[in-house]
Design brief:
Helix content of chain B: under 10%
Largest sheet of chain A: 7 strands, mixed
Number of helices of chain A: 0
Order of helices and strands of chain B: EEEEEEEEEEE
Shape of chain A: globular
Structural class of chain A: mainly beta
Radius of gyration of chain A: 13 Å
Oligomer: heterodimer
Structural class of chain B: mainly beta
Number of strands of chain A: 11
Largest sheet of chain B: 6 strands, mixed
Order of helices and strands of chain A: EEEEEEEEEEE
Radius of gyration of chain B: 13 Å
Number of helices of chain B: 0
Distance between the termini of chain B: 40 Å
Distance between the termini of chain A: 31 Å
């Protein structure tokens, strides 16, 4: 148990659907992240939030829309996705941003399949 | 560009020792992480090196040479539960994490 919970664990959606991924951290951390993990590829950082404010958007297509209502919760809203968006989506948190040695605590991810 | 290289897959025998290498070319260096990820589970922190040398934590050790842009993770007395992917990540000069693609380690009895 890492202290970061993601739901759902698995999601299958059509290209015209709208769905949301949820992440909750019970660690009292200030920073939260969305990563995309595709097979045999490095983790891709998508979004970063610090104290509920978005500090980074790594040129992510607008069909992915993040929301951070408070420091403990993070959502990723999905709409009109493409098959190439199929991947494992990982949420992570850290005590603060930057500083070099900030270790990340990850959730188990949502395995997304877009048909 | 920035790049992290690690082997895609390695196989080792239960009870043996295995070394997983990671080489990096990044704009600056502010530390290197190793994470372990079992299939279908969250990556979990293993080690963080910012100074040259070897750091030991039980059966796992991590080594760093900043001048060579090189690190390795050493796993001793391998157990079946060590079958997992091992992710190397470097913190660059902007405090951004640059990730390798991970090494899948298969342990055979």
């Amino acid at each position: 148990e890492t202290g970061v919970t993601q739901t759902p664990r698995h999601l299958v959606m059509g290209m015209t659907n709208k769905k949301s991924l949820k992440c909750e951290q019970h660690l009292g951390h200030n920073a939260m992240y969305w990563y995309k993990q595709s097979a045999k590829k490095p983790l891709e950082l998508m979004f970063v939030y610090n104290f509920k404010e978005q500090t980074e958007n790594n040129s992510v297509p607008s069909r992915f829309s993040p929301e951070c209502p408070n420091s403990s919760h993070l959502f990723l809203h999905l709409h009109t996705l493409q098959p190439e968006d199929s991947a494992l989506y990982l949420c992570a948190s850290s005590q603060d941003l930057g500083g070099g040695g900030e270790k990340l605590f990850f959730g188990s991810g949502t395995q997304l399949s877009v048909l | 560009g920035q790049n992290i290289d690690q082997p895609t897959e390695m196989t080792a025998t239960e009870g043996a020792i295995v070394q997983i290498n990671c080489t990096y070319q990044t704009s600056g260096f502010n530390g290197l992480f190793w994470y372990q990820q079992h299939a279908g589970e969250a990556p979990t922190f293993l080690s963080y090196n910012v100074l040259d040398g070897l750091e030991e934590k039980g059966r796992f050790s991590s080594f760093l040479s900043r001048s060579k842009g090189y690190s390795y993770l050493l796993l001793k007395e391998l157990q079946m539960k060590d079958s997992a992917s091992y992710l190397c990540a470097v913190v660059d000069s902007n405090y951004q994490l640059i990730w390798g693609a991970g090494t899948k380690l298969i342990i055979k009895p």
